[in-house]
Hints:
The structure holds 2 protein chains of 2 kinds.
Chain A: H1 7-25, H2 31-45, H3 50-77, H4 82-104, H5 115-130, H6 139-147, H7 160-168, H8 173-205, H9 208-212, H10 215-243, H11 261-264, H12 270-290, H13 297-316, H14 320-342, H15 344-349, H16 353-375
Chain B: H1 5-19, H2 40-54, H3 71-83
Amino acid sequence: MTLFGDLAFFLYLAAICLPAVALGLAGRPIRWYGTAASALTIVLVLAPSRRQLALLVLFVTGQLLLASGHAWFVRHRGRAATWERRAVVIAALLPLLAAKISGVVQLPSVGFLGVSYLTFRAVQVILEISDGLIERIRPWHYVYFLSFFPAVSAGPIDRSRRFDQDADNPPGRSDYTRLLGQGLWYLVLGAAYKFGPAAWCEYFLRDPDVVGAGILPYMYLYGFELYFDFAGYSLMAVGASYVFGVRTPLNFRAPFVAESIKDFWNRWHITLSFWLRDYLFSRLTMAFIRRKVFADRVTAARVGFVVNMAVMGFWHGTSPQYVFYGIYHGVLMVLNDVYERRSGFHQRHRRATWYRVVSILVTFHAVMFGFLIFSGRLPAA
Amino acid sequence: MPITVSQREAVRQLIAHTCGSAAVLDEPDADLTEAGLLDSLALVELLVGISEIVGLDIPPTDVDRSELATVNLILAFVDDRMDQ
């Protein structure tokens, strides 16, 4: 059984959704049932790989202890101990680093289903404890947040305080009915994306005639396959979340009509992009500005862009194509920023329809070329 | 502790500097995000600036961007945080 991937899963999903729907329509909390359903789903999905299941359980337990310990420390000793904050963040990141590095040095993999997504969710909690935004860890609430099955393997990367709001406050019958309707629609739409256009693109990508026809057809097909596959998966994950009364944020918003690269990252893999913006870019740039590391703030932000996007690339994997992909987008963000700040032509025409259409076309092709790097099919990568 | 008159003026100047235009102060209810004047860097500059002016450390995730969409909202936000 594969999450959102085969008929067995969808039949299983229909069955485990029924009690959630009954609870939702009765205006009762779904949290405890949702926790049990998530545990069962993870056990069934990972049944063929006990190693991964063991690693995931170890991960959740370890992160729970770490977050609880950190919250205790901050409550008793305050937020002044920089060494403690850094040590905890590094410890929380270790599973992700170990999973990525074990791939590079050919050690037995310590990766498991969703490690990249889950680590970022755990680090969010740690950072918000450091910020004083989260005071205490409620163990079962934390476990539910990390292991919530619709989003466990490939996001969207929700935020714990937002997630808890939904899980703690059942929406009531009429709101739940609306949420359920929307959720079912997202499930259908997501399945249509994944098993329609994404599957067709994948079929053509396996055709030697298409693959041999040159790099351009491959680039477009690969880009569209990536979009429909991932956006479809994300829609289904959001749809299933809604059925469980959790408004997991959407991950895509018409990315191919973006008018600039900055605009693209507000539309593509939104929960990852916003996670990096809030927990890496903003903090790094604030530190640069406060410590006056660079002569001016704009330079600080541009260095921030490149580091941010390079980390985004590394987050996808350690193969050169992912790292190049990240750096490529970092450089595009800087060029985008320079152009928007310096170009009088841009300032004069940015609202004109023709200019916006051209901007969309240029952005689309820059993005597609990025996907070609990501695909690993370019000789240099 | 309420915000002083000089701090308030410093925050107004900070907003004008961050948005790159003093004209934004003439329309204190205009949406800065919609006008493309308040991007990720501008938000960071605002938070660093506010912490320098009034000594409040505000983590980026403690702010909902809609709370800082206009000049008046930013001033109200600082007022509100100073009162807490």
